[in-house]
Amino acid sequence: MAVWLETDESMDVLVSLRELAFQIPRAELDPHCWKWALLALSCAVNSALICLLSGTAGIGALREDIAEQKLEAHANPVSTKMPKRFGVEPIHVLLDLASGKRNRRERAGGVIAVSPEQREAFDIVVGLRNQFVHFTSTWWYVELDGLPGRMTSVVEIIQAVLADPWSLRHRDDAERDEATALCDSILCKLTEVKALPH
């Protein structure tokens, strides 16, 4: 009998935050663990943005062409097939939608404020994540000095998303409280890392 993992974006926020909290102390001992911390952070912010943007039709985070196909399939279920793949917008577009820089496709969570510093940190973290996931046969250097501060800015974006009750509406109170507590704990851990002598 096959064993399946059942999950969704709201659970991924929580699981990714747990992993991030786990990896930060490890990264102090082994700098290679920053890779896993960055991947966990990227997953957490990506899933949080999807949760914030997805309304009752479930199209707020989807690519525009997929969203249109899904709406057409709902409007004409006999003549139109539901899309087989539900591709979401690239993560940079998700942040633009969440922060009001682009028009949304459906009503969902509120607009979040993102400072220029947070956006810059977000772009750097996503760029590092992409290097780790889509790497070529080469080596690279990751500047660790500013990394905890940049990660702090991205966790602050997640906190802004989680402050909107819409985001984790499918999780119970204990899970929502855990997500909030994890963000607070992660910020403390990142501050401690920043305070370490080099």
Task: Briefly summarize what is shown.
This protein has 198 residues and is an all-alpha fold.
Biggest sheet layout = none
Anisotropy-based shape: globular
Beta percentage is under 5%
- In terms of structural class, how would the helical and strand content be classed? mainly alpha
SSE pattern, N- to C-terminal: HHHHHHH
Distance between the termini: 52 Å
Low-confidence stretches: none
Would you write up a description of this structure?
With 198 residues, the chain is mostly helical. The chain has one domain. 60% of the residues lie in helices and 0% in strands. The chain has 7 helices and no strands. The longest helix has 22 residues. The relative contact order is 0.16.
Question: Secondary-structure map with pairings?
Answer:
Blueprint: H1 9-29, H2 33-53, H3 64-75, H4 91-98, H5 116-133, H6 147-162, H7 173-194
Helix pairs in contact: 1-2, 1-7, 2-4, 2-5, 2-6, 5-6, 6-7
Features:
mainly alpha; 198 residues; single chain; globular
